[in-house]
Each structure stands twice: as C-alpha cells, then as structure tokens.
Amino acid sequence: MSNQRADALLNQGHVDIALNYSGILIAGIYRSQSVVSYENVVVSLKKSNFTINSIYDLATKSVLAFQNAPAYLPKEFGHNLENLRGYKEVFNQQAQIHHLMAGWVDTIILDRRIFLHYLKEYQKTNATKDFVIHAIFPPAARPAYFNNDLLRQQFDKGLANIIQSGEYRTIMLNLDKQYTQRDFTRF
C-alpha cells in the first residue's frame, strides 16, 4: 500500500494502524514510540564517480525516490528539489533498482534494508553493476500511528515489553541478517 493511501485510510478510520504515515498529526491520530529506525540512503552507480556527502551534492543529478519522500526526509531535501536535474517518486521501490542499474537515473533514495532486499531479488534474474551507498541522511525513527488511543497505549506497552525482554533486539538482528546474507563488500 502506498504511503499516501495509508495516510488516507488511517485518517478515514478504514485501518487501525499505519507505519508509514507522513507525520502530519490531526485530531484523532496518535503516535506510538519508535518501532524501527530507517536508514535512508542515496545509491549511485560506482562508474558515475559521484561525490555525495550532503543533500546539496544531489544538485544536477536525477533522483528517483520513494513515494512522498520529502515528508520523510530532512526539510532541506524538499527545499532543494528544484536544483535537481530530474526528480520522480515511485510507489514500487523494486523499480528503483532497475532504473538505477539500467542507467535511467543517476541516483535513487530509499532505506538501506529495502535497497539490499530488492537488490537481492533483482540479482536473481539480472546482472548488477557496482554501486556506492551514500549515507547522507540521519537515521529516521519511525513510530506507528493509530486512530485509537487505547490501541496505541496497548501497542506501546507490548513494544516496551519485547524491548525489555530482548526479543525486539533478536527480531532486529534477524531482520538485518536476512538483508545481509549476500556479501556486498565488493561494491
């Protein structure tokens, strides 16, 4: 489900929880404690030899980002969209990998784990090119959003319990292991 659709369905009461909510709180929407931390990154092909150390280094480059990216990235990113050679957003993040590998865009922006997951899928049927991951964005804590405060309170209590028991850490370590089963050191 797209980020924008999740926002609308939560606001309309058609779903109880949304994990990728734009963060614009309205009456009746309640934010939980942080559930996960995204590490949004810029990825470019190594052969491009780009130096990307900040948002401003994206100027003159084409960027393919995830849907509604300016709502989730630092404000400076949204303020500098007009400086980009091209900017588009996609709902299907798997398409970002194909666009980058085909050379149709200079850079893509997405979460590091999502990139590694879709890269692994892409490699099953396609050759890949060497790439560079530019970690220019700060980690982004992501809460869950609810349209029922009691449900949010129960969720936060359960989350606190699994964090305290160590179960949360185990889940996150296993998740990281799933994304990094392939050796990406040659890139």
Helix content: 25-40%
First-residue to last-residue Cα separation: 31 Å
Structural class per helix/strand content?
A: alpha/beta
Q: Which strand-content bin applies to the residues? A: 15-25%
Low-confidence stretches: 181-187
- Gyration radius (Cα, Å) is 18 Å
Which CATH architecture of the largest domain would you pick?
3-Layer(aba) Sandwich
Task: Give me the secondary-structure topology.
Blueprint: H1 3-12, E1 17-18, E2 30-38, E3 40-45, E4 62-66, H2 75-79, E5 86-90, H3 94-101, E6 107-111, H4 112-123, E7 131-134, E8 140-146, H5 149-165, H6 167-179
Parallel strand pairs: 4-5, 4-6
Antiparallel strand pairs: 1-8, 2-8, 3-6, 3-7
What does this structure look like?
By secondary structure, the protein is α/β, with parallel strands linked by helices. The protein folds into 2 domains: 3-37 and 141-179, Periplasmic binding protein-like II (D-Maltodextrin-Binding Protein, domain 2, 3-Layer(aba) Sandwich), CATH 3.40.190; 40-134, D-Maltodextrin-Binding Protein, domain 2, CATH 3.40.190. The protein has 6 helices and 8 strands, in the order H-E-E-E-E-H-E-H-E-H-E-E-H-H. The protein has helices at residues 3-12, 75-79, 94-101, 112-123, 149-165, 167-179; strands at residues 17-18, 30-38, 40-45, 62-66, 86-90, 107-111, 131-134, 140-146. It has a 5-stranded mixed β-sheet. Strands 1-8-2 form a 3-stranded antiparallel β-sheet. Strand 4 (62-66), helix 2 and strand 5 form a beta-alpha-beta unit. The protein is globular, with a radius of gyration of 18 Å.
Main attributes of the structure:
D-Maltodextrin-Binding Protein, domain 2; alpha/beta; disordered C terminus; 187 residues; 35% helix; 23% strand
